[in-house]
Amino acid sequence: MKKFALTFAGQGSQSIGMMAGFDTMPIVKATFEEASHILEMDLWKMVVDGPAELLAQTVNTQPIMLVAGVATFRAWREAGGVEADVYAGHSLGEYTALVAAGALSFADAVPLVRFRAQSMQDAVPEGTGGIAAILGLEVDAINAICVEVAAGEVLEAVNLNSPGQIVIAGHKTAVERGMALAKERGAKRALLLPMSVPSHCALMKPAAVKLAEFLKNVNIVSPTKPVIQNADVTAFTDSAAIKNALVEQLYRPVRWVETIQSVAKQGATVVIECVPGKILTGLNRRIEPRLSCHAVFDVASLKAAIEALRAT
Fold this sequence. Notes:
Blueprint: E1 4-8, H1 26-39, H2 43-49, H3 52-55, H4 58-78, E2 86-89, H5 93-100, H6 106-123, E3 129-135, H7 139-149, E4 155-162, E5 165-171, H8 172-184, E6 189-192, H9 205-215, E7 227-229, E8 234-235, H10 239-249, H11 256-265, E9 270-273, H12 279-287, E10 292-295, H13 299-310
Helix pairs in contact: 1-4, 1-6, 4-5, 4-6, 6-9, 7-8, 9-10
């Protein structure tokens, strides 16, 4: 069997009913119940019934996506899926990757992620921040647009998702100016995303300060396998370095293109998205067409991914 990576998505991949395909695997619901007990709120009900507006709130979305990723990973292991050779997570998914790699306990990760989400929401008043996806322009062109229209406000390229797919964030008015100029410069689409928190830009520095303080009391150890972290595209093993990377991740870009390129350089030929959804799988295929990419979103796709991996 060849080397493979497990990847975990973050905010934006959530949807009502996204765990329905795992109804026959009690470990999935049990993982949600464990987290619900920690947070004293019914996360499973929120995923099953919504409403969508509640599920989309940052303070709910982030812990739910962490739990969904860990639940899917536990289902993977229970079904016979082996430990990955390398792990990576997109934004919030980095926390899920650290749990999967044994660096961070699930019990610690749940309140940590909830605190992260609340700190991010508190950092920028509702309606002040904005975030948008720009399709069809490369990063140099996007960076030039951000400089040109910032006008004293914050506007940055924050998610380098794949060639020709970049997310910008900052003050909402600056984001809107950036979208308009991007269209003038040839962007295929400029789409304002339904998220009130402008993640991974300088507006998140107050949240980063709070997160750094919170992390002082969180136990993080060296992962069993490399976890490539977003901000530096580096697999750290030292606890302090891992924590620092998590803090910096709040206000630095998610370098997903380089992350998947690093996965390939480490010898992985198969990449499995281990959280309900297929967003990362599409990105990963565009970044490294040589990789065999699979998404695990229900029991059938879980079994198919395990079989595909065994066949390599």
